[in-house]
Amino acid sequence: YYIQPFDSFFILLLDFCTSLGHSYPGKPKIIRCHSLEKETFSCWWKPGSDGGLPTNYTLFYSKDSEEKIYECPDYETSGPNSCYFDRNHTNAWTTYNITVTAINEIGSNSSDPQYVDVASIVQPDAPVNLTLETKTSASITNLWAKWSPPPIADVRSNSHVYHYELRLKTEGMEEWETISVGVQTQYKVIRVQPGVKYVVQVRCMLDLGKWSEWSSERHIQISRGQSPPEKPTIIKCRSPEKETFTCWWKPASNGGYPITHTLLYSKEGTWFCPSDIFWNSTKVEIRSLYNTDCLERCHGTSNSIIACALLLATQPPK
Ligand SMILES: *[C@@H]1O[C@H](CO)[C@@H](O)[C@H](O)[C@H]1NC(C)=O
Ligand SMILES: *[C@@H]1O[C@H](CO)[C@@H](O)[C@H](O)[C@H]1NC(C)=O
Ligand SMILES: *[C@@H]1O[C@H](CO)[C@@H](O)[C@H](O)[C@H]1NC(C)=O
Ligand SMILES: *[C@@H]1O[C@H](CO)[C@@H](O)[C@H](O)[C@H]1NC(C)=O
Ligand SMILES: *[C@@H]1O[C@H](CO)[C@@H](O)[C@H](O)[C@H]1NC(C)=O
Ligand SMILES: *[C@@H]1O[C@H](CO)[C@@H](O)[C@H](O)[C@H]1NC(C)=O
């Protein structure tokens, strides 16, 4: 083998560099590829040793059996040592062959190729805003859980249908009970135990991807032995002189707990809260209803047990 002067120059340079502790860069390794919503994805790599020299990293990819090689469209968005594939560079039904090449002055070194099928690397963020509430009727307490899908930076992608799982356990216990919820963002856990404290979490999944992490925990104490009051009944209303009128009702049975009775009425479509009631108003027809929404019109959401009567507008009491 005849050494060309040109070659020998490089061999000398290489020897020189090696003697300074400089060398080819180590082999980079693709550590993770991940999509939050199947419409974009990112890959991250771990650099190898830098060979003591400034090293540049380049990500190349090809798609399915195409020969064409592309370079990473965006090295910035997903942070250092990453490549972000925006919507225009993401095709869920394509296998990507991805390689990262490290280059320094002496030479280059490439990672093993990573084959990425976008649909299988989808892992959404956990659902957010989980809230718990109990509702009791006919002395059976049910637990309602509600949540929102994970927020996504690119709102155009936020039309996805997630599948959810909910899990709950008694506080302090190890074992979770996991329930497949389907695509709803709420779930009713029937017949929870009074007096018990529950812990609840939810998670979500998109198509064939991976489950998200579990959401943050929510705790709720199911109150003991509370039951809603019975429906109160308005017995009669009377207007002796057509200037004022009075209504009487039969109080609800209270099961040992204090009950507030609130009488609401509307007149010509406008709602009146207790403090607004002027009994000099005329023309009301009274019906009794059991309606837990009626107090909320006045006081916002109330967790207390509510019994109320509703008066609906229109005709003068007899
Ligand atoms: C590439 O990196 C690997 C592992 O870091 C190393 O063993 C190998 O020598 C490097 N290749 C070259 C051509 O230097
Ligand atoms: C994607 O491509 C469309 C049409 O070619 C273009 O209008 C849009 O700006 C591109 N979006 C991104 C994020 O590059
Ligand atoms: C993937 O890409 C690498 C680097 O371009 C190439 O060596 C390898 O043959 C490709 N694999 C397939 C299955 O095409
Ligand atoms: C690394 O990239 C910078 C900026 O593109 C370039 O100036 C430099 O020559 C590159 N270094 C190597 C070793 O390729
Ligand atoms: C979650 O709750 C916060 C605070 O109430 C609200 O700002 C945010 O919009 C909610 N997020 C979703 C996705 O509903
Ligand atoms: C009804 O009573 C209220 C408060 O006492 C008073 O302000 C209002 O003018 C009365 N309305 C009528 C129609 O008499």
TrEMBL record:
Keyword entries, A-Z: Disulfide bond, Glycoprotein, Membrane, Metal-binding, Receptor, Repeat, Signal, Transmembrane, Transmembrane helix, Zinc
Xref: PROSITE patterns: FN3
A single Gene Ontology CC term: external side of plasma membrane
SUPFAM superfamilies: Fibronectin type III
Pfam families: EpoR_lig-bind, fn3
Domain Fibronectin type-III: 27-125, 126-225
GO MF annotations, alphabetized: cytokine receptor activity; metal ion binding
Intracellular or extracellular location(s): Membrane
Membrane topology label: Single-pass type I membrane protein
InterPro entries linked to this entry: FN3_dom, FN3_sf, Growth/epo_recpt_lig-bind, Ig-like_fold
CDD domains: FN3
Domain of life: Eukaryota
Range of residues in the leader sequence: 1-23
PANTHER family the record matches: CYTOKINE RECEPTOR, INTERLEUKIN 5 RECEPTOR SUBUNIT ALPHA
Family label: Belongs to the type I cytokine receptor family. Type 1 subfamily.
Protein name: Prolactin receptor
The organism of origin for this protein: Melopsittacus undulatus (Budgerigar)
